[in-house]
Amino acid sequence: MNKSKWFIPLIAVSIIILSGCSSSIPELNYTPAEQYSLDKYLYSVDLTRIKNDKAYVHLHCPGLNQDTVIFHFPKTIPGTYKELDYGEMIDSIEPKDHDGNLLSVEKIGKNIFQITGARDLTMIHYWVDDTWDHPKAMKRIWPMGGTNIEKDENFVINASGWFGFFDGLELVPIQVSLTQSEGMRAFTALPVESKFENTIVFNARDYHQLIDCPIMVSESDTATFMVANTKVYIETYFNGEEYGYADLIKKEIQPSMEAVATFTDSLPVDEYHFIMYIRDGREFMKTLQSKEVGIITKAKTAIKNVTLFGMGALEHGNSSFYALTDFGDSSYTSMIKRVALHEFMHIFTPLNLHSEYIGEFDYVNPKMSKHLWLYEGITEYFAYLIQVQSGLITPLDFFAEQMGGKIRRASRYPETKIPFTEMSERVFEKKYGRHYYQVYQRGALMGLLLDIEIIRLTNGKKTLKDIVLELASKYGPNQSFDEETFFDEFTSLVHPELRQWFADYVEGTIPLDIEGGLSQIGVEYSKKGKHQVPKRILKDYGSKEHRLSFGKYKKVKKVGKKDPIGFKVGDKIDTDKIREKFYDENGFPMQEGTDVKITVKRDDKIIELPYALELKKRKYSHRLRILKDLTDSQQNYYSVWIGNKK
Ligand SMILES: [Zn+2]
């Protein structure tokens, strides 16, 4: 899973609100008889008949032959690491016998329905409400794991919010039949059984596969391309007027997908679907940035449109689902580039490498694995490693910007108090769940430092990627590794000393040795100090930037009296380009007096303003630089790390 920075304040709020809701599972006081079985769940939904923003679901399920039947909806689903309680979206449930007589039903838990006198249970009917615009559920269930009902426009069918299962019968095949309006199509990785007129029938191997394959029904805006052996589909829906988002997104994603193909010989999937719902946030952003609109109106607009900030993505075996917002700038495309790669990399872990807690996922009483360092941390690290190894980003960008940023954000979490494995296992509890975000920060740093440690311990013969690919090909999607002995197994493929590394940094509370680790590959890390650096071209001369500048551009709000460059109000400055001119490729500042040209976008024209670089002594924290004179061992390890294996 991954969520953009936009989402963080919203999540912080939702976790606080919801912490009291953690519910215990009721005792199920029934004993299924031996012949408890079902050939197939037969689900059908007519999406053309929506009432009060709800859809009517029909389940045909004859032959259970039980006095009491328990019908569940998931408490949570894989990849979300949070209690979601999908059962709360189910309304007016009606179990019926062969003749259509209503059977007695009681809701005995947030997600559990108990049907009694059920010997002749033949069908269940109920209404499904969607989570996206539900006042309670929209705060609890992130949009990428939620459901959407927009009549004649768009349906997001994450099965957890639409379809239930009988106790213990998660492995029974499921057929889902959807009737949709003229011109609508269904986008999913789920195999299609048949199509007749406006009804499409899908077959899922079992409930797990159904959960693993979200379906989006909407008009068609798609693009495809091949990466090595994998056909990639981009399937988008935009709730504004325009079409053509799929092609736009293809341009963003294709280079990183091609980089993945160089990371490994072949990809473990034949096809992969990026399914995306894109909201139109352009008007909203215009209001927020407008000079004519007062602060109170802005605040009200922000609160009313808070869902627009809920961007994120959830990974699945052959697909990933995205909820995004186009604010009319580059922020969502740069997010797609970053997040799509992260979600795609999940095909290695956990999808092809996981413990029994994920392999045999328990939707009723889920147990969390302690190996989030692997599922999320390593995935996040690999998403950046691929970019630097394939030249999509520079080594300096990788270290100083990306990893430097992660070090900074990781420092806010209680590293010396809560072991990472303990946070993982107990992530459903408030005390631990609030620290979940560090999986993308400290987790990714663990990936980097573990990679370096493996290179050191094997003297450059192996990398983290080698070990993960070896394990993923040993286990694959259908076999689980042992939750308890995994650190030992991992260690046995590297060097006995590695076990202590896991014990100290992942199972223990010893702070990561960032300085020592990075120095092995010739990268210098300094936690804090003072140094001579280029002046900040706005702030240090009394100029000001707009607070609501999105993307990489800084917009000049006020020009300071001491400004030596000649800025004008409204100038847009590309901050990435400035960094490239002020520092060399290793991250050391250029000499004072160096002539540089500041590139500025003024009235939609690009102009260049001359500037003689000035330095200033400033405090720093978490500085990373690439050393220029490396020892033989540093040179050797660095070239193995960057992918130039001997
Ligand atoms: Zn993830």
Measured as a percent range, the helix fraction is 25-40%
Average of pLDDT: 89
Decide which structural class fits the backbone. alpha+beta
For the secondary structure, the number of strands is: 28
Say what the CATH topology of the largest domain is.
Neutral Protease, domain 2
Q: How far do the termini sit from each other? A: 35 Å
Tally of individual helices? 19
CATH class of the largest domain: Mainly Alpha
CA radius of gyration: 27 Å
Task: Work out the count of structural domains.
Answer: 4
- The geometry reads as globular
* Each distinct ligand: zinc ion
Protein model, in words:
With 646 residues, the protein is an alpha+beta fold. It has four domains: 34-219, Immunoglobulin-like (Sandwich), CATH 2.60.40.3650; 220-347, Neutral Protease Domain 2 (Neutral Protease, domain 2), CATH 1.10.390.10; 349-524 and 629-646, Neutral Protease, domain 2 (Orthogonal Bundle); 536-613, Pdz3 Domain (Roll), CATH 2.30.42. It is 29% helix and 27% strand. It has 19 helices and 28 strands. Helix 9 packs antiparallel against helix 10. It is globular. Bound molecules: zinc ion. Residues 1-2, 315, 342, 346, 376, 379 line the site of zinc ion. Zinc ion (ZN) binds next to helix 9. Residues 339-446 form the Peptidase M61 catalytic domain. This is Peptidase M61 catalytic domain-containing protein. InterPro entries: Peptidase_M4/M1_CTD_sf (IPR027268), Peptidase_M61_catalytic (IPR007963), Peptidase_M61_N (IPR040756). Residues 43-218 form the Peptidase M61 N-terminal domain.
